[in-house]
Amino acid sequence: MTPGPNAFEADAVRALAGRWLPWLGDDDFVCSPAGLWLALAAVASGARGRTAEELRGLLGVGGEVAAGAVGVVGRRLAVTGGVVSAVGVWSRVSVLDAFRRGLPDVEFGVLRGAPDWFELPDEVFGATDDVSLGEIPAVAQDELDGWIRRATGGRVRRLPLGLDGSESLVLVNALALKASWRTAFPAHLTRDEPFTDGHGGTRPVPTMRRRIPAAWVWSVDGVAVVELPCDGDEAARVRFVLGRPGAGPADVLPAAWAGPDAREELVADSADLLLPRFTLRTKTEADAHLASLGVSRALRPGADFSGLSTTGLFVSKVVQEALVEVAEEGVEAAAVTQVTMTRSAASARREVVERIAFDRPFGVVVLDASGEVPLFVGWRRSAPGGTGAEAL
Predict the structure, then answer these.
(1) Same domain, 132 and 226
(2) Residue 194 and residue 282: Cα distance in Å, rounded?
(3) Are 286 and 252 in the same domain?
(4) What is the DSSP letter of 159?
(5) C-beta separation of 202 from 333 below 8 A
(6) Domain around 208
(7) Rounded distance between C-alpha atoms, residue 200 and residue 129, angstroms
(8) Looking at the whole model, is its pTM more than 0.85?
(9) What CATH number is attached to the domain comprising 313?
(10) Strands (E), the chain
(11) Backbone dihedral angles phi then psi of residue 294, each to the nearest 5 degrees
(12) How do residues 131-155 score in pLDDT, each as one tens digit?
């Protein structure tokens, strides 16, 4: 197994995922726990006092220590085959040099967003001399949208939340994955099979099929877990999880990152896998969940981010857009997390083949090469091919 991030950081990302899942509901969704953790931890590296303590309670790190943790996780994810990870900060207020030095892998830029001109340093005036006030938000939007397209290989086209010129600082994390299955699903075997959605309705959906080794299948407390290997060295680990009928995502999805001691092997020699071809795409306003997760000071004027800037700032929005697409050839996924900050004021036997049909609500989880950090987490409640979360 590829060595992953330090155990502490991996545990922290999994803990955030477990606490976040109950607030995402039971309908279709896809999110990136690693993307949210990286974005918030980067912001937390500039937090001090009680604001830092609150963020530490959610993230496991806060203050200056958070910067080192961001670097550890970001560098380890970057070695996972097919994964691209990037963080950028655009600001129109002064950012402390110590904050920049603490995040050496983060790209910093100027946010051109209808500023109070007298507060800007001279070099920013030079960057905006030829831009009218009315054009400034559009110019900033185009610049950040271009960065996102490059960072995600075009899978996400724009910021989850558009700019209106009132932002003082925008931090963006981008994660993207493109991987091929080690062995593709035979396309000629894909055919319609019945899928019963979370409302009890049943209809045919395009379903891929193949026989897989029993070693790719295990269960955790009654949740079936199937791992499909991806091609290449240091490949991401893609796992599909199927709970008992009626089980929700908060109960089912964590089985994907349960350790070996919690796993029960499949009592068979192989399994016939039936898996719908599907796409999930959702936008999540995570700031609405943070207060329920114990973070409130960072979200209101008076927050202490004095390790980031001499200007009083607070987190006004945290929005994430994510997608995952699973097909016969492989998997593609991407997530962009946007944090906007605003000024305050067994023995030999005959062969047994198990049939595993993902014909009711199920989950998909993409982990880093170590199998420890959940990069993307998705839940499919509606029948694939319907509206659901695909109509963003």
Answers:
(1) no
(2) 24
(3) no
(4) -
(5) no
(6) 180-279+350-383
(7) 60
(8) yes
(9) 3.30.497.10
(10) 29-31, 83-91, 107-110, 169-180, 191-196, 202-213, 217-220, 223-229, 237-242, 264-265, 270-276, 278-285, 313-326, 330-343, 353-357, 362-367, 374-380
(11) 100, 5
(12) 343 445 678 889 999 999 988 888 8
